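User: Some background: our group keeps a shared notebook of sequences we're curious about, and every so often someone picks one and asks for a predicted structure to add to the entry. Today it's my turn. The entry only has the sequence so far, pasted here. Could you supply the structure so I can complete it?
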Amino acid sequence: MARIAVYSSKGGVGKTTLAVNLAWAAASLSSRRTLLWDLDAQAGASFILKPDRAAGDEARAVIERDLAPRKLIVPTAIPNLDLLPADASLRTLDLLFAEIDRKKRLLRISEALDKSYDRIIIDCPPGLGVTAEQIIRGASLIVLPVIPSTLSARAAEELISHFGGRKGAPAVVTVFNMVDRRRLAHRAALDAAPTQHALPMASLVEQMADRHAPVGVYAPRAPMSQAIAALWQDIERRVVTA
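Assistant: Of course. Here's the predicted structure to add to the notebook entry:
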């Protein structure tokens, strides 16, 4: 089983929608038994995939190991895709990880699901604290969305440097997200890194919260869906050959 963390130390880079779209790709394009684990207290991924679920405060109990994750996991409308939802109890996740002082808690919880899933996509909260350390130890691969801007690129460089200096750290795949080719700065960033995956700014992505579905469900032929498919193919290749 591969654990793919969609992570950024910076908010507002399209992390949650990317996680949902990658989970769809794993389940639908690769027919992988997939779990989307929402670790962000804002619960955006949970709202997109399961809007009718009554919000509780059980997500923290999974981390504390007072509740088995299987008891909180729910199926989604997408075949092969389940959801481990988030809620507001995760808003102090950094503090929780520090209190339990188990450096591989995230890894151990996901390993317990090894026989049930082929891929776990983790929608991580932003920040560079204790949760980031859990991600380093628990992920097979980190997908890092970056908006082609100076500040976002700087944050990404710091993060890659932080991860890269750790023994056994997972590989990091940087992805340009919310790309607007009309903007000079975005075009310059794309020209400087022509082989890097780039996902376009698209109103179709904004519709995910209203349609409660990944883009590939309602716009399979759109450039965004094609870009997600290409990115997922690359991720699959990396985790299979790792």
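Suggested note for the entry: Strands lie at 2-6, 34-38, 74-75, 81-84, 119-123, 141-146, 171-179, 198-200. The chain is about 45% helix and 15% strand.
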